[in-house]
Amino acid sequence: MIPFRLEEKRRRLLEDEQGTIHKAGADLCVALVYPNIYSVGMGNLGFQAVYGYLNGLEGVSCERAFLPDADDAPLYDRHDTHLFTLESGRPLSAFDVVAFSISFEDDIMNLPRLFRHARIPALARERADGHPLILGGGMCAFMNPEPLSPLMDALFLGEAEAGISEAMQAVRASLRQGGGRSRMLSALVGVPGVYLPSLYEVIYDERRWVAERRPLGDAPERVPRQRVSDLRGLKTQSVIRTPHSEFGAMHLIEVTRGCGWRCRFCAEGHVYLPPRTHAAADVLAALPAADGAQKVGLIGTSLPEHPDLDRILDGLILDQRTVCTASLRMDGANRQILARMAEGAQKTLTIAPEAGNERMRRVINKPISDRALLRSVESALECGIKNIKLYFIVGLPFESDEDVRDIARLSREVWTVIEGRSRHPDSKLTLSVNPFIPKPWTPFQWSPLQDQAVLRARVQTLREGLKDLPRVRVGGYSPRQAILQTLLSLGDRRVGEAVASGGGDGRRSWADRFGGLDFIVHRAKSVDEHLPWDFVDHGLRKSFLVDEYRRAESETRTRACHVPTCRICGVCHDP
Question: Model-level pTM?
Answer without folding.
Answer: 0.95
